[in-house]
Batch of 4 targets.
Target 1
Amino acid sequence: MLGNLGPAIQRSVIQQLKNRPKLIVMDTMNFWMETAWDDLLDTLKLIDVLVINDSEARQLSGEYSIVKGAKKIIQMGPKCVVIKKGEHGAMLFSQDNIFSAPALPIDEVFDPTGAGDTFAGGFIGHLARTGDLSFENMKTAVIVGSSLASFCVEKFGLERMKTVTQDEIKNRMLQFFKLANFETYA
């Protein structure tokens, strides 16, 4: 997981690896798009998954449509793109697949700071734990990341993340399942 550093530093980290990992996930932000465009494009060619928010996806792709933007970003190099949409959920794109996950409605958001990083940590943590890099498992990773991020916003900083339990995480994931599950209309 390449944290949100300058793209030249991220690329340098990749180039120093003796053996390429099975998956390289990268975070970036609008600042690097404005100040290190060429380095960013070069680094995108070396990664597997890009995790960004919706405004960053629009800026990077030049497209207002998230779907068109994700397709353009995939052409830049990553095999998958995860687009975080804050209180509106997250979307996962590959060349041939799209998955849209809702956000869990939270009664009171205390502090959204760090929710995106918490999402990314939950996403990559699930993939590392399972070792399954399929699109289907990445869909679950999006829900794990979203579940953890929903805890993050409940308190200031890391306070809520220090006390969250495995049972709470399982229950939160069940809430996501119930939120998105429905009977088909006949």
Target 2
Amino acid sequence: MASNPARGGAAALRKLIDDVVAANRILANQGVLDAYGHVSARHPLDPKRFLISRSLAPELVTAKDIMDLDYDGNPPKGDSRSSYLERFIHAEVYRARPDVMAVVHSHAASVIPFASSQIKLRPIYHMSGFLGSGPSVFDIRRKFGNTDMLVRNRAQGLALARILGNDSIALMRGHGYVAVAASMPVAVYRAIFTERNALLQQSALAMGGAVRFLNDEEAVLAEASVRGTITRPWELWRKKALSA
């Protein structure tokens, strides 16, 4: 029997919506998101659109809350629900990075000091090899002067996407960070372990003395090794979050 492309596309869309919901719940359950922050996924049927919740606390997100936005942050005609003010973070990253399929924006408190000081966030253990030599910092004031720190339009989103470049993580001074990946499980993993690495690095620095970070080659090798096991934590986190 011949396959039905339309049916297959609808199934892929339903699955991805479920993954976006799960990602919101996981990141809230793990303390990476609270009432703020958001998660998105590139639309499986139209690469110039993305799926993201309406403006809602991540822990409360359900499938019916997921919106379909274009690169300009606009929903289809007739969808009048409020979307996140910072949807332009997601839109401009997807526009700039065809390889990115999922984006997480978090305000995790442990990461903020590294975005607002001279101390660089660097991988301190094998679970955070994706941090490489340390993420760049987006300072919105350098280009846009004094603002409320939010990425509210295309120009600000584009400036952030340029700082991110081809990296997995970008920090945001006085704000938080962005994690991206070629799949939702990996983006969620990176968001969680960015926060955990920040906590560990702060603990190591507080002990005094020199901190031995992963060097560039160790980071690459560790990241490649861990990436092959991402389904293990994803399935565990998903089960815990959706049953909470």
Target 3
Amino acid sequence: MQIAGIQKLTLVDFPGHVAATVFTRGCSFRCGFCHNPELVLPERFNPLLSEKQIFEFLESRYGKLNGICITGGEPLMNRDADKFISHLKALGFDVKLDTNGSFPDMLEKIIKDGDVDYVAMDVKSPLSKYSVTAGIRNREHGTFDSSLRPSVPPSLESKIMRSIDLIRNSGIDYEFRTTISHPIHEPEDFEKMGEMIKGAKRYFLQNYKKSKRINEEIDYEPFTDEELEEAQKIMKKYVKDVGIR
């Protein structure tokens, strides 16, 4: 595993758990608002930690931690992600996985192995805007052009929807979530995202917070309280439990 860091204690990342968070290096997306550029951009990478270091720390925290969050970057880029998760589970920890949904084959294997207890998937935008929102096309654009709607590669569309279906039907606990900001998201986007995850058990709107980000040239802005409430109202037509973070 390409492990870039560890947060030794979190009370908020894994619902109902006293946990540590492991950060993996590398991502298949380049979301401009991403606040972890050192995990995504090769020119910003920091030295890696070894799995041995991680396991030694966790073994020293027996009885104090009961959960491990694995986030990134995109953890499922690692070909040995399933083995790493199985090792954590064998050590006696519950495991939460964060993913962007672009590696459904690995996700399916991990779910079938039964070693993950909670999955959180980021739903970036409606499928028609994914290429722009996730920065996988038009990376040369220094500004976000809301009129730019390149066709989404069929492979990406199918991967995102397959991951949503895998999680929704997995039988394990989960959430979908979207980091929302101007100028990326528009009111009509929430109807389309609602259709994508219709029938899901839980969804969170995560309002953008100004901080370091991958694309410093775009002036991202958070939604107002009124806009958040309107987005929540729309999403509740599709998902029963809709929260705001």
Target 4
Amino acid sequence: MALKIIVSYDDTDNDHDALALGQLLAVDGAELGLAYVRHSFGESLEQKQAEELLDRGAASIGTPEMPKHVVVNPATSVGLMELAEKEDTDVIVFGSEYRTARGTLKPGISAHKLLLGGPSAIAVAPAGLWESPVSVGTVGVIDEGDVSARETAQSLAAALGASVAEYEAGGLDLLVVGSRPEAPAGKVVLSARSDYAVEAANYPVLVIPREVALEF
């Protein structure tokens, strides 16, 4: 079954980065969609603005008919988690935090919350990715003792025509990270070591739930 990927999108430069990463990951027929979380209820103008925002994002990559979701929830992370569970989403993609230096990566608050028990893999794009698309020749892996992480890295590398290397080897273009051994099956939880690796990255990062291998 093809992967389902949702990009958290609000039309900022950082979320243009997320959309670029979503396109990179949406190989071999994967379904790519956009999601915007509204924080207030009952305002028709805000609903219309949210729909227009997503329409612009879809049009910017030449796919105006792609799935678009406007979710209403006081918390972006909760709204995205509920949407992911409803849609059986495999990956949620985020841009880096506002004002992150170009070429570096820093998960924002919503991404961080979903890295502490979310049900879907979490991908984060470095700032500036949409202006300088990455050519992936090497996919790194930190497997945390979970074969699913290595299988995911191998599948993604094969789809992108890349090779797989250990994180410590350096020279990476993208990093796949497994969840910590204590994480419940099917949930994303970073170890302290992996959290440091994510924060230090200057390339896209994909963190997968424990014991869940993604097939690209």
